[in-house]
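Quality-control log, excerpt.
Job 1 of 2 completed; input and output follow.
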Amino acid sequence: MLPVFAQNSTVLEIFLPRANKEVPFVIEAEIEGLNLSNNKIQSLEEARLPNRTRFLFLDHNLIRKLPLSLLESLKFLTRVTLSNNPWTCDCAALDFKKWVVSKSILVSIKTI
């Protein structure tokens, strides 16, 4: 069973001090921002995030690729930080780039 996080706040910060490689959780709260920076996350394949999320901070993790389906489900996303992750450059990355350009969101990627 996936952990469920409910929160009354509009911004939720989650710090995973153990070497969590995946983020298998569901967040049911109607949050505006989610900070998952500075963890050891490798995958968000099973994560389900609130579709009203506007800010998503994923910098300083171990993420190689993001599922496009996750990003497409975030209809109100305006900003995502992705710096300092070991990104994989392949055809899926091209789809990700097309998605970013089509959505006109602010994306911060300093190192790829």
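Job 2 of 2 completed; input and output follow.
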Amino acid sequence: MRSLLMLYLSQSRRVVSLVDIGGNRLSEQPLNRWDRIKSKFYSTIEKQILKEKPYKVALGCALGIGVNFFPTLGFGFVFAFFLAVIAGVSRASATAVSLLTGPLVPLMYALNILIGGLVITPVAGKENLTDLIISQYSKILRVGDVQEQIFSFLEFFGAAFLLGAVVNAVVIGTGFFFFVRFILRKRMKHSI
């Protein structure tokens, strides 16, 4: 009859041990660097994120994604961490989500301009966003005071960008909050 075998991960010794049901070690293999990184990552997730209340983790995630809609010059994860400390939510989830969504920042910025432009277009008196963008580019290409044309262009796109950033951070952050909270609650139900 075969005895049951278990894998035992020892962080202090940096080895994976094969242990039978009686606790006898059958073999040990040293962890390679990638396995050590993975084990540290999973233990950090287990300690920092999954032990907290779901709404704190979800608020941290929403904060982490919301920060990336604003220009932070690459320090979005730092802002997310400090805002999480101030708000009393999960610092680990805010920082992790901010870092993980970092590669999506160019798409987020394009979405900011699109949403901000959709809001500003009726105010500017144009029929659609395309007409407004074409008129802004034509202002730049006209002969005349270049500085005034550039400032006019930057004023429009700056206002559209920031307005879009606020709208996107609130809407997508709220949606992400409910999504993460749902996932964590579902996970907690199945683990009990």
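Post-run check on job 2. Residues 104-178 form one domain.
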